[in-house]
Design brief:
Blueprint lengths: L14 H4 L6 E6 L4 E8 L3 E9 L5 H5 L7 E5 L3 E2 L18 E3 L2 E2 L12 H8 L2 E4 L3 H11 L2 E6 L7 H10 L9 H4 L5 E3 L21 E7 L4 H9 L2 E7 L4 H6 L4 E4 L13 H7 L5 E4 L1 H9 L4 E17 L5 E12 L1 H7 L3 E7 L5 E6 L4 E4 L14 H14 L6 H9 L3
Helix pairs in contact: 9-10, 12-13
Length: about 425
């Protein structure tokens, strides 16, 4: 059951065909004129976005519901997607914000005791189109060689014409210069008290939460729920606020620390946030993850640049320069902080972590203030747990500051590294 045209990639039989249902057509057109044809799943619609690839082997639901992918069409390099279905507990946000999802092979009949529905139905409910049955290796090679580019994904049977789709892709906006955070942040402040998933019977018990309760405010640039859960596990009372909440309102809550979350898109395009962070870093301990790391770098006078095809997946090597240890990390970003720009800005900022694949900045710490940040996602949802220690580092920095100690982010990163 294959078909091939001049601009088509060969397709394979799907569950729908095996059940006797004819597959609906779908196509992904890139701005460079390449087109990939396969089968539709998810919503019946037409959507544009920057096409990226993710190398994770598991966690497609967490990836699809990560707000950091807003404005992007995600291609999974792992071949079989949908086989364990979806469930409400694994959602990382209130809905999928991404522009499309591309897979090699879609499983439409999941088999897992936690499954509550199919991946296709979840995307359909969120208005997100999906494309299956293409040679994802060919698409990934094109992105790696030529860099991330804009594409248009159509699951509308009435819009499958190559020329029209390519023309739409060439006219569609890229991520650069667009404030995607404004589209994913929460509408109002709220308290978050949910802890980590209890797991399964027989697993090793988790360490107890610290006895002393401390208050933090988490700025929602597109925060993932498991990040908030792990902050709760560190004994924090967490209040989540919208991205542009004025510093005065945040400080009026009398927090012991500030957290800057992950999020989507171009950090330089996020409007109104840098002056807020510049004020907060002079008053409270601050920890940033991913986009929060980049925004912290910008607030300290640095600059960011776009990567060729970004880091997306659960197998990125992050080196701690204090210890020489390398952690396998989950990452999802298309921009990076420029190391030289921080030096030029005159702030005493130390680079604490780098990516071994391309030497991009993966961690920062301030030598005079209680500030540090990390580019990758230490909450492991999905991904490895190697970097989970960042949450305990934040707890130590906030608690020591609350005790009246004069502690810096650089001291925390250097002193804790040897014992982790």
């Amino acid at each position: 059951m294959t078909r091939r045209g001049d601009d088509d990639v060969a397709t394979q039989a799907t569950t729908s065909e095996l059940l006797g249902r004819p597959p609906a057509p779908a196509a992904l057109a890139l701005a460079d004129g390449t087109i990939y044809r396969g089968r539709a799943f998810g919503a019946t619609t037409v959507s544009s976005g920057e096409v990226v690839f993710n190398t994770s082997l598991t966690g497609y639901q967490e990836i699809a519901t990560d707000p950091s992918y807003a404005g992007q069409i995600v291609t999974m390099t792992y071949t079989q997607i949908g086989n364990v279905g979806v469930n409400a507990a694994d959602d990382e946000s209130r809905k999928p914000f991404l522009s499309g999802f591309v897979v090699k092979e879609l499983y439409e009949a999941p088999s897992n005791y936690r499954a509550e529905g199919t991946f296709s139905a979840k995307l359909a409910a969120a208005g997100v189109p999906g494309l299956s049955g293409i040679d994802t290796r060919a698409l990934v090679r094109r992105i790696r060689d030529g860099g991330a580019q804009v594409g248009v994904l159509s699951t509308d049977p009435a819009l499958q014409d190559r020329d029209e789709l390519v023309e739409r892709a060439r006219k569609a906006p890229s991520l650069d210069g667009v404030d995607w955070v404004a589209r994913v942040t929460c509408d109002a402040a709220y308290a978050f008290g949910e802890g980590a998933w209890k797991g399964v019977e027989g697993q090793l018990p988790r360490p107890p939460r610290p006895g002393r309760r401390l208050k933090i405010v988490a700025y929602d640039f597109g925060v993932k729920r498991n990040i908030l859960r792990l902050l709760v596990e560190q004994g924090f009372d967490v209040t989540v606020v919208p991205a542009t909440t004025p510093a005065a309102e945040t400080l009026a809550l009398e927090p012991d620390g500030i957290f800057l979350s992950n999020g989507p898109g171009d950090p330089a395009a996020v409007e109104g946030v840098r002056p807020i962070v510049r004020e907060l870093v002079t008053k409270k301990p601050v920890f940033g993850i991913c986009l929060g790391h980049q925004i912290l770098g910008l607030a300290l006078g640095g600059t960011t640049r776009k990567l060729k095809f970004g880091h997306h997946g659960g197998n990125q090597p992050g080196k701690d320069l204090a210890t020489g240890k390398v952690a396998i990390c989950a990452e999802n970003h298309g921009y990076a902080v420029e190391a030289e720009s921080l030096t030029a800005a005159g702030e005493p900022v130390e680079i604490t972590h780098v990516n071994l694949n391309d030497q991009t900045v993966e961690g920062l710490a301030h030598a005079k203030r209680p500030l540090f940040s990390v580019q990758y996602h230490p909450e492991a949802s999905p991904g490895p747990h190697d970097a989970a220690y960042f949450f305990s580092r934040f707890r130590e920095m906030v608690e020591r500051t609350a005790n009246g100690e004069s502690v810096t982010g650089a001291q925390i990163c250097a002193s804790r590294g040897a014992s982790e």
